[in-house]
């Protein structure tokens, strides 16, 4: 089985990299880009039957820093 | 004073830190590889050096904070052993949960490498007792991820409890409330982004870093 983990900055945490990406898009001539927030995508290859709680624990213990980041898990 | 410097793969200030400790305290530290599962018996000070441990993979300090030796560092810190984290060492301490907050990408996105002016916000810690309260000192920084972040409640608590030890006296990296260094509630774990070990001899352009090691020697013998 596969788990897809999306790690994003919490709302309210400034994202200077996102802002730089926004400016770069504007410089390339793309109009209407009103905001950019960047994050991480992590794909885990897991033994079948790995419990969801165990994946959440992986996120809390290592994949995300919950002081600044939220995570979302999709199991496929 | 018995000390240890932890060496992670990608640490690059471990020897500078060891030289500062040796020259100022008179005793060379034991260098401890991150895969060790014990620390030297009776260690008084554990120092976590600057560098780019694990190439800053995932987040700065994230991988190192889960190294085998860190379980021992956490246990020692809980017993009251002094722990000093400089730069990447500060990032490791926040990732390990020994200090609150997180160090994010610098607000200007640039790697900042220069001498900066700091204000001593608390001179009552074992790390800062040789500085005058409110004094302005010069210590170099060299980092990409030094932008200190914590929620407003945590920042208020840190300030209220005198746990902000050093503040930037100029704009450096966008840190919340200009925080450059914080101490834990017990007062025995300090993390700071500036590098005191880089300014300990007149030949290096100043000696403001010396007093941190002199303070530790005075406190720990």
Automatic annotation (TrEMBL), chain A:
Enzyme Commission identifier(s): 6.3.5.3
Role, per record: Part of the phosphoribosylformylglycinamidine synthase complex involved in the purines biosynthetic pathway. Catalyzes the ATP-dependent conversion of formylglycinamide ribonucleotide (FGAR) and glutamine to yield formylglycinamidine ribonucleotide (FGAM) and glutamate. The FGAM synthase complex is composed of three subunits. PurQ produces an ammonia molecule by converting glutamine to glutamate. PurL transfers the ammonia molecule to FGAR to form FGAM in an ATP-dependent manner.
One annotated Gene Ontology cellular component of this protein: cytoplasm
Pfam family name, one: PurS
Family (UniProt): Belongs to the PurS family.
Gene name in the database record: purS
GO molecular function: ATP binding; phosphoribosylformylglycinamidine synthase activity
GO BP term, example: 'de novo' IMP biosynthetic process
InterPro entries the UniProt entry points to: PurS, PurS-like_sf
Signal peptide (UniProt feature, chain positions): none
Catalytic reactions of this protein: N(2)-formyl-N(1)-(5-phospho-beta-D-ribosyl)glycinamide + L-glutamine + ATP + H2O = 2-formamido-N(1)-(5-O-phospho-beta-D-ribosyl)acetamidine + L-glutamate + ADP + phosphate + H(+)
Keywords: ATP-binding, Cytoplasm, Ligase, Nucleotide-binding, Purine biosynthesis
Subcellular localization(s) per the UniProt record: Cytoplasm
Protein name: Phosphoribosylformylglycinamidine synthase subunit PurS
